Backbone:
């Protein structure tokens, strides 16, 4: 139970940090700029990565900028996030707030209230209903995730073939990815045989792929739109012993899949990043706004370059849960 | 599967009741027939084996749920419990692997069975000793188990050691004389469950506690004990399902087993077990689990429904199956 002891240690250290924070008033005086970070709790792979990278960035920023105090808070629902915003802003003066909102509509009002007190607002991933509230917006490009994968795939298939697609959970993120993908595929002779929801769930992706395999005797490639689902898909293909599937692609840059890319897997030679580490970009940019007075107001859309064996190291975080 | 169920049908009862008992199997046969008409690939042996193997998890957990529900209880925690046991089992196997090699697999499975039974005992004792509604108790433990697996995986995934992966894979993917192992395990669980429920004193006490608590108490049944044991059986069955589940994808994630509790309850009720307790139909539960998987499979194989409406059609078929059941039962 090595990892269990590790976790107990982690729990203890969290408790001690909390104690140190409440007693360490003297230390907080030197840190005259407070940056609050509000993110969803780790309930699945991607948000697990967000929490991991936010914790890393907290340590790094506090070490690099002695005058910045980072306060990290996770919330398990939109309501809980609203409450934690209220707690954060009522107990201290916030100079900056970096927030990955649970939902756009519900968080817009509460964030606007924080803004009225003169706080610098950095919004990550999901935009607020009123974009005028944010000073800085950092997000990934879901359309590019779909479009870049589609461009690569149609290149490799020579512009023709028959493919199947797995969708995630019906949300804007899923819609944008599918739109980016099918817009590019629509211009080629590639035929999308089938497209169904598997809810970004490995088990459901496994079952759906088994059904696809039973339904279509020949499939040239499969796009799972997410690396978690891709793992289920690959298991189903291997089990059926199907050799006709030339490419099985996902997206998001999950570490298990990046490992496959690094090893030069023939069926999964690329992935596309939609990195949870974008929270880190936002925190660093906000820190730069205060510590270096480098102007950071505006929107920053992360590109979605293909992850290939050559550049995979840049996207690989072996310690991260995602 | 149909072989198992014919032996289970209770002998010597009125033909009217036996006709009603057949309802879930008739519904299953109709859906299978429909599937065969929609797409000829449906009846290919590879597809049928896939579907039957996949339904093993819900069927095995469903056997346990048949005990709990016919005793007048309910267990909403089975999906989360399954994920939690999966996590514990993988951690135990990975810990034991360097010292014991492949023997870590049966040892980890043993740990799973113990942890599963204890989880069930925990649910059962709170329900019976604490005298709290099972709905609330298991809703609470559902959250607890789900949080534990999320904590154990850090929100990511917990994978089994690579050295064990190949040795363990056959438990899901392998077969004996063409019958996949999960199906054989389901068969064994069903036979033991049917024997317990229909042929032992415990089974009769269980259904009497489910149909009328007062009458059962007056006739000397220790209702609390009988119900607690039902939850332990449920926990044990969840662990058996977990043992078959791990070799499939080799990992546990915070979404493992999500919403399985609803599928399990649906399978049990479609199978003819009364949700208010007092009557359990183990063979029917297996038919119910098969119906759920077959519907999902047919939905993908047919091109008739838009991907946005699949869930609506599934829901409608389940309701129609229940109405047909009620119709045959009242004749």
Residues:
């Amino acid at each position: 139970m090595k990892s269990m002891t590790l976790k107990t240690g982690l729990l203890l250290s969290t408790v001690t940090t909390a104690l140190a924070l409440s007693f360490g008033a003297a230390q907080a005086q030197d840190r005259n700029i407070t940056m609050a970070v509000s993110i969803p709790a780790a309930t699945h792979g991607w948000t697990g990565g967000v929490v991991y990278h936010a914790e890393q960035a907290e340590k790094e920023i506090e070490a690099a900028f002695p005058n910045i105090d980072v306060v990290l808070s996770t919330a398990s629902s939109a309501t809980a996030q609203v409450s934690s915003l209220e707690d954060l802003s009522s107990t201290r003066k916030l100079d900056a707030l970096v927030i990955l909102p649970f939902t756009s509509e519900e968080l817009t009002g509460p964030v606007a209230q924080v803004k009225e007190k003169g706080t610098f607002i950095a919004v990550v991933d999901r935009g607020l209903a009123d974009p005028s509230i944010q000073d800085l917006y950092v997000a990934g490009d879901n359309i590019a995730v779909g479009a870049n994968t589609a461009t690569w795939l149609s290149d490799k298939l020579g512009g023709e073939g028959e493919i199947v697609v797995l969708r995630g959970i019906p949300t804007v993120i899923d819609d944008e990815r599918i739109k980016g993908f099918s817009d590019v595929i629509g211009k080629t002779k590639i035929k999308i045989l089938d497209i169904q929801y598997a809810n970004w769930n490995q088990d459901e992706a496994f079952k759906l792929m088994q059904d696809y395999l039973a339904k279509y005797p020949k499939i040239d490639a499969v796009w799972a739109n997410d690396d978690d689902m891709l793992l289920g898909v690959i298991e189903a293909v291997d089990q059926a012993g199907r050799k006709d599937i030339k490419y099985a692609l996902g997206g998001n840059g999950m570490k298990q899949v990046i490992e496959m890319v690094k090893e030069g897997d023939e069926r999964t030679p690329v992935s596309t990043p939609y990195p949870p580490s974008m929270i880190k970009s936002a925190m660093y940019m906000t820190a730069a706004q205060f510590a270096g007075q480098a102007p950071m107001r505006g929107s920053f859309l992360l590109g979605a370059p293909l992850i290939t064996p050559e550049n995979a190291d840049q996207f690989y975080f072996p310690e991260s849960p995602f | 599967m149909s072989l198992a169920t014919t032996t289970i049908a209770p002998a010597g009862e009125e033909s009217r009741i036996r006709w009603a008992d057949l309802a879930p199997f008739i519904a299953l046969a109709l859906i299978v027939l429909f599937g065969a008409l929609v797409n000829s690939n449906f009846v290919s042996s590879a597809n049928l084996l896939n579907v039957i193997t996949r339904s093993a998890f819900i069927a095995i957990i469903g056997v346990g749920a048949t005990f709990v529900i016919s005793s007048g209880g309910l267990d909403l925690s089975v999906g989360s419990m399954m994920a939690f046991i999966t996590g514990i089992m993988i951690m135990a196997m990975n810990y034991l692997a360097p010292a014991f090699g492949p023997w870590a697999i049966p040892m980890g499975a043993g740990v799973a069975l113990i942890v599963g039974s204890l989880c069930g005992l925990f649910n059962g004792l709170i329900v019976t000793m604490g005298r709290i509604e099972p709905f609330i108790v298991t809703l609470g433990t559902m959250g607890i188990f789900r949080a534990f697996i999320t904590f154990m995986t850090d929100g990511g995934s917990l994978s089994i050691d690579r050295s064990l992966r190949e040795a363990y894979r056959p438990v899901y993917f392998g077969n004996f004389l063409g019958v996949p192992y999960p199906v054989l395990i389901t068969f064994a669980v069903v036979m033991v469950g049917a024997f317990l429920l229909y042929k032992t004193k415990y089974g009769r006490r269980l259904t009497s506690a489910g149909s009328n608590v007062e009458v059962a108490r007056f006739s000397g049944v220790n209702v609390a004990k009988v119900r607690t044991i039902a939850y332990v059986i449920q926990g044990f069955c969840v662990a058996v399902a977990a043992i078959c589940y791990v070799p499939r994808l080799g990992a546990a994630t915070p979404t493992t087993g999500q919403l399985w509790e609803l599928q399990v309850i649906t399978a049990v009720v479609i199978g003819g077990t009364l949700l208010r307790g007092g009557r359990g139909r183990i063979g029917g539960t297996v038919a119910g689990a098969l119906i759920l998987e077959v519907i999902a499979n047919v939905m993908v194989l047919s091109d008739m429904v838009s991907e946005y409406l699949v869930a609506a059609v599934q829901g409608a078929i389940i309701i129609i199956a229940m109405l047909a059941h009620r119709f045959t039962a009242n004749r």
About this structure: The longest strand of chain B covers residues 158-159. Residues 2-329 of chain B form a domain with the ABC transporter involved in vitamin B12 uptake, BtuC fold (CATH 1.10.3470). Chain B has one domain: 2-329. DSSP finds 16 helices and four strands in chain B.
